[in-house]
Amino acid sequence: MLKRLMIAALAATIPLLAGSGSALAEIRQHTLKFAAANSKGHPQVTGMEKFAEIVKEKSGGKMVVNLFPGGALGGDLQTVASLQGGTVEMLVLNAGIMASLSKSFGAVDLPFLFDSGEEADKVMDGPFGKSLADKLPPFGLVGLAYWELGFRNVTNDRRLIAKLEDIKGLKIRTLQSPIPIALFSSLGANAVPMPYPELYPALETGAVDGQENPYANILNAKFFEVQKYLTVTRHQYNPQIVLISKPYWDQLNGEEQQILQDAAVEARDFQRTTSREAEVKALEEIKATGMQVTELSPEELQKLRDAVKPLIEKFTPDIGQDTVTLLFKELEAARK
Q1: 42, 127, 167, 317 - which has most CB atoms within 10 Å?
Q2: For the segment 92-132, what is each residue's pLDDT rounded down to a tens digit?
Q3: What is the pLDDT of residue 176?
């Protein structure tokens, strides 16, 4: 009797094992190129490294992610085109840059939007972030997750910025996106949009006087070598979007897609934590380089806020009223 029960139990187990083997066989051999503008050591690239590790583990080594940081495959917009064409598989970049394809993404570039990274997480991981990602497939792209670049601050090599008037006339490199350009024009600067890989030589030669980026970028790209002054403005928060080429995505089966989706989300949590820890450490290291760091008084910071506040009303028709309404609805919910 016992022998018959054991045989029956074994027989019942065989289909389960066979099904498991069949599911595993669904994962095929893949090699992906994953690009970014920042260099190795930056939290963006640390997140990419984590993503590659997770994909390797979840796929049993069948899916290999090769990293191309430091703008090795070109600037962000150039690499976006490569994803659309299917010649590069993945990219992580500032979400606001996607406004060049869908103007709705301009919403994340609105100035002084978030008070903290945690507040941004709630908004970007919820209905608002999904509404933006849903607009990408017609452009040949799929959004997998939102990571973090952080809060942007201004540096320059001409003069200390302690008040709004000090920004006037400075040539400041900005992102290649309409709102950052308008933001610095509103502050009286000469906004100069250019790809990130071109920024260091532009600062070195004096083609631009300054730039604006989070602390981790300033440290990682060694901007302190060609900039004397840093002003803490936190004028803009940059969520980053992890993109995958839709032509490539459509070639994957459901299990392969799920591995990449899950890995992007799992790496997101790691990357955000890494980014926030790096922000604190980077500021101390920047100060140690001899760069002069200035914090604006509350009164002067309010002057900056007032100067750029009209941009929300100005850009709402371009972004879309529904998108802006949803953004501020989710922002209000996050603050509760």
Answers
A1: 42
A2: 999 999 999 999 999 999 999 999 999 999 999 999 999 99
A3: 87
Residue 209, in any domain of the structure: yes
Nearest residue to 145 (alpha-carbon basis) of 30, 247, 267: 267
Confirm whether 19 is domain-assigned: no
Query: Does the pLDDT value for residue 327 go beyond 60?
Result: yes
What's the CA gap between 22 and 253, in Å, rounded? 13
Instruction: Report the alpha-carbon distance of residue 126 to residue 121 in Å, rounded.
Output: 8
Domain region containing 59: 29-335
236-255 residue pLDDT tens? 999 999 999 999 999 999 99
Q: Tokens representing 90?
A: 């993945």
For the chain, how many structural domains are there in total? Answer: 1
Here the CATH number for the domain that contains residue 271 is: 3.40.190.170
62, part of any domain: yes
CB 294 within 8 A of CB 230: yes
Map tokens 């942007």 to a residue: 152
Alpha-carbon 234 to chain mean position:
16
* Torsion, Cα of 169, 173, 177, 181 (10° steps): -10
Angle at alpha carbon of residue 330, lines to 306 and 307, rounded to 5°? 10
Instruction: Give the 3-state secondary structure of 22-74.
Output: HHHHCCCCEEEEEECCCCCCCHHHHHHHHHHHHHHHHCCCCEEEEEECCCCCC
Among residues 207, 206, 202, 230, the alpha carbon closest in space to that of 217 is found at 230
Whether 326 is in a domain gets the answer yes
Place of tokens 């989706």: 261
Please give the full DSSP string across 247-274, using - where no structure is assigned. HHHTTS-HHHHHHHHHHHHHHHHHHHHH
Tell me the pTM: 0.87
Q: Can you spell out the DSSP letters for 287-331?
A: HHTT-EEEEPPHHHHHHHHHHHTHHHHHHHHHH-HHHHHHHHHHH
Q: Which residue matches tokens 């900005």?
A: 174
